[in-house]
Design goal:
Organism: Rhizobium redzepovicii
Oligomer: single chain
Pfam families: VWA, vWF_A, YfbK_C
Distance between the termini: 119 Å
Protein name: VWA domain-containing protein
Strand order of the largest sheet: 7-6-5-8-9-10
InterPro entries: CLCR, Uncharacterised_YfbK_N, VWF_A, vWFA_dom_sf, YfbK_C
Largest sheet: 6 strands, mixed
Strand content: 15-25%
Structural class: alpha+beta
Amino acid sequence: MDKELEKLSRLTPPATDPEARARALAAAMQAFDNAENNAAAAQGITKGWRPSSIINWIWSSAVNKKFLAGSALATLLVIPAAGYLTLELARNQPIVNQEKIAGTVSKNDMPKPAEPRLSEAPAEENRPAQSSAADSTQVLRDKEPQAAKSAAELRAEFDAGEIATLKNKSEDSAAALGMAKRAAPAAPGVVAQGQLSAEPMAAAPSPVPPAEGNVQVQLDPSRERFANAAANPIKSVATDPVSTFSADVDGASYSFVRRSLAGGAMPDPQSVRVEEMINYFPYDWPGPEKADQPFKATVTVMPTPWNHDTELMHVAIKGYDIAPATAPHANLVFLIDVSGSMDEPDKLPLLKSAFRLLVSKLKADDTVSIVTYAGNAGTVLEPTRVAEKSKIFVAIDRLEAGGSTGGAEGIEAAYDLAKKAFVKDGVNRVMLATDGDFNVGPSSDEDLKRIIEEKRKDGIFLTVLGFGRGNLNDSLMQTLAQNGNGSAAYLDTLAEAQKTLVEEAGSTLFPIAKDVKFQVEFNPERIAEYRLIGYETRALNREDFNNDRVDAGDIGSGHSVTAIYEITPKGSPAVMNDDLRYGAAGKAPAAASDGTHHGELAFVKMRYKRPGEDKSALITTPVGDGNAVATIDAAPQDVRFSVAVAAFGQKLSRTSALDTYPYQAIADLAAASRGADPFGYRSDFLGLIRLADGLSQR
């Protein structure tokens, strides 16, 4: 077969006959015409429709129309909603700082400030639109009409998404993520000057009200830590006749107690330090007339209001009051916590107002510097004379909260600035303002304590101001203040800031003595037992009194210190300890054999160092029958009021000695001894007693 085909392929085709070709073409044309004439109708049914189900015909028409309508509906819903959301964000946009925009921040490793990642913003902004488009597609797929989501729901979804991205960042930072186009600030927590609001003292509102399901920072009282210890026990004079403690002029505990009661809750007993409640109030104790001897002691012995078988020995110390004109120059560094936990109305906004009050109190030649810290420390204001007050105010007003809290680096930076502007023979002080939440960074509490101890040797002291609740680390605040030769205060209101930083500015800023210690020795012939009320966290060993290397509290210009002992006279039925079976329990001291100390109840000693000196001086005061009064009413007015405060503090701290002494009796004692009250502090105290009485009966 293949050979045949091969033969044929070699043959030459015959030439074309034109006539035959014409005949073939004509025949083909005639066949085509005949076929056209015979085709009267198209293939299929007579109407020309393709055979198809009536159901398919109806469905196809409905789907086509519905698809067009659904697409138009989705467009009408999504575009206005997206436009409304953009308008709301632009209208309510708050001023936020670089730290808030930079992205997710680790709790344990705060990076340095970075440029905002604006590329992430469009994806976040388009999230509501994408969600709505997906919903519209699902409507067409399921053939069920659904109502479009409202603009409020879209805004809620936006917040939740942003907060999920930023974790614990504030809501205003999340809403502003896609809008931020500003340069990085010079320090954490500072906004550019051109971005300040018209009212710098007011806190910027959150752009969107909290929606259900949004992540919010909740105040957790269990996170608050207080510096306290078990109440002082009753001690026998026969075995332990000497009591030694450090001076304490802080008033932070009273402010915290006041806030708790005003908020409708009894304070945590651990937050009550009775000595701080007593020393919170100004008293008119007799003071020294000359600065040569900076202190004067006044001792009063009176019956105990809550126990008829004991007595109170009231020791009042008044410091020399420096005239404002002779006050030394001040070099102050404001070390301000601008971490995320400070983003509360009673924290950073109150702090800014408080420092404005303080700056207004300073002299023109004083200097102010500002350092902020939130993970990283930054200098907001180099040392600036108070004469340039407007420049200082602008720096304060620019502060914004955001980030985690790492205090060690900020403390180092603040002390460096204080050293840079050091004033010889002046006041060089770092003023740390925080909610006490030092929870991030390599430094432990002991590391921070060590830093403070080293810096005080350079003549730079520390004052700690606490703000707000929920993160309050009172324990660390007290530790830093005590080791920094300074004081601690808790500012819960602007009125408290006025009291601490303006009315008591001299005692807060200008120390007249450091390392102030007290030691009281009781005469076993007259006194069987004693109990020091308060000062549990200030207790010292007996040998520490004469050791000038042991640190103690400081006292400022015009400040007063009050200490109260409950003492049990010899032979009183209130004696709690039995006489010793062995030893010389009933033997009189050898020094008393010549009658020199006959009639004395106790001997009060006080040691102190002048600022800039390392050797202490001694002041002594014997206490005898001449210091005693027969009745409570015979005691001086201020003594009785301070005793009422001591009773109230012990009652709140649940001291068993006052279990049967009612709040009403405390109120009566305080009301009868209120006296002159120019600032209303004592009237407010009476109100706190009534609140505690009511809350305790729940």
